[in-house]
């Protein structure tokens, strides 16, 4: 009943290989209207992700080091060559996707749950995840926008899913859904069934709330 990444991912993915130039990556991001693309090796494995942030690092450091003929002292250049600043400086010198990308890439599997993918994005501070098969090859991409689609299911669709999950017709219980809120009306045959029904209904992706009303 739980939706997986496979249910919402995009399979038509814009991706680049490691030899693609800086300008070609920038043009692809603009053309596709995306902020990042996976970088693949020759066998289709995801080896990194190159984003707008990676590209902007080049301009940022160019302005810092070379703008108005400014050249920082050697000590400053050495300091920037270490740690995260050093990584950004390295990217500022890059000319290809392989040199500009962030690696390793944060990825997910197609059978991962929506909740798992959302938590992974939040934990890593990313807006999308390449979806890979068991061998690490790219098969799709999932974004935050894709994940919230499960909460846009129609009430009619949710009603069918909930009734199937709790076997409402067999129990003789009335079920209604309004704005994603599920309401059970009537007495369940057994005392233990209401809590189980509420739990099952609440686990359906897209359900906002569940309640039981007894006439």
From TrEMBL:
CBS domain residues: 9-70, 101-161
Keyword Iron tagged: no
Pfam families linked: BON, CBS
Parts forming coiled coils: none
UniProt keyword annotations, A-Z: CBS domain
Lipid metabolism keyword on record: no
SMART domains, sorted: CBS (SM00116)
Protein name per the record: CBS domain-containing protein
Taxonomic source organism: Nonomuraea rosea
